[in-house]
Amino acid sequence: MMSNFEAFFDYIQKISGQLLSEDDKDLLTAHFKARKLRKRQYFLQEGDVCKYIGFIVKGSARTFTVDEKGHEHILKLSVENWWLTDFESFYLLTPSRFNIEALEELEILQSTNAEIEEFLKKIPAFSAMSNIISQNNTIAAQKRMQAINYSAEERYEELVSNYPHFLQRFPQNMIASYLGLSSETLSRIKKNALK
Amino acid sequence: MMSNFEAFFDYIQKISGQLLSEDDKDLLTAHFKARKLRKRQYFLQEGDVCKYIGFIVKGSARTFTVDEKGHEHILKLSVENWWLTDFESFYLLTPSRFNIEALEELEILQSTNAEIEEFLKKIPAFSAMSNIISQNNTIAAQKRMQAINYSAEERYEELVSNYPHFLQRFPQNMIASYLGLSSETLSRIKKNALK
DNA sequence: TTGAAGTGATGACTTAAATCAAGAAAATAT
DNA sequence: ATATTTTCTTGATTTAAGTCATCACTTCAA
């Protein structure tokens, strides 16, 4: 179990550029709870308030919505060292429109909004990390907005260059849904790309 | 000129839920510079590092890219009480891929990255505001990602419900570009929506 | 006050991607 | 090992939205 936290502490220190004191580590260890989810198990279901935020130690998950026609749309694919939550629901305590489901056996360290507020106040490295993640989120959001004007090929090429490991790790129909394409279209794009 | 700052101070206090001291206000007044841009004037040109962040006191602007075919794509439309910058370029000091242009006569209060760092350290209300804006950005980014799967009609309906004043304020071809649609398509959608 | 530029509407046509359908291949379970 | 989902491919067809072309209407500037 300790090793889970070591990876977590390393992550905080690396992102923030600051060291955690022993007291900091004790506080985090006391409040972050280790949790395992089996493949296909839900971390969050549509309509529920997302009470937890999870740090992924091992495994992967998808965040998706289901439209009126019953079609699923993946908004996010999450892997190790990423945070797992619906930020809107988590921050505002409103019912979520999203589902979050484990795609592989998932090991996370989870905590609540109130606890996070405490870490932000008491742990400088945690607060610095939070600010940097927000910055990165803002930048990523800016980039994603550009994708509106991209063709199917361009979206795929962008994924290949930004997240090449996703292609190995996730089935093609998940990738297609993440890119907002039908799986048939993605299959054809890959065929053409080989030439 | 003072009135510009009064609106700015009100904004910080409202968003942060905290009061600014006289010292805080003096520090902000000393470092934020009032600037006017005429209609069509550029706040940022593609290839330049975005050295400034501007708080819009009056007027509006668009953030856009130009693709290989010479077509412009609007990523953001900004109005009063919004921040004007390319966050990626501003935070990371990298050359920007965006252009930011005044759509109407524009009055802003602007400052540099280094100065912002100072405000974050010295002014609690400013730091609280920054965190809340980051939260809102993260939430907005999550929402925007959903738009990938939306049809032309759905994107338009979303705009109507979220930013109805944009429809009055900006020409239809700008709105179309912002939604990632051709102006002909938007014209047809509006015609159908009337029925 | 009259061009000129910018904006918006509409019709005809084209194209990118979705949908529908059927098999093949791979992964998982019994 | 074999059945049974699940995933992936390929072809035929449909559909949503883009492109091209033209005309009307408005602003704005000389």
TrEMBL record, chains A, B:
Q: InterPro entries in the record, alphabetically?
A: cNMP-bd_dom, cNMP-bd_dom_sf, RmlC-like_jellyroll
Q: Which UniProt keywords apply?
A: Kinase, Transferase
Extract the CDD domains matched here. CAP_ED
Q: Pfam families recorded for this chain?
A: cNMP_binding
Gene Ontology terms, MF aspect? kinase activity
Source domain of life: Bacteria
Instruction: Indicate the segments forming the Cyclic nucleotide-binding domain, all copies.
Output: 35-122
Please report the name of this protein according to its UniProt entry.
Answer: cAMP-binding domain of CRP or a regulatory subunit of cAMP-dependent protein kinases
The record lists the organism as Chitinophaga ginsengisegetis
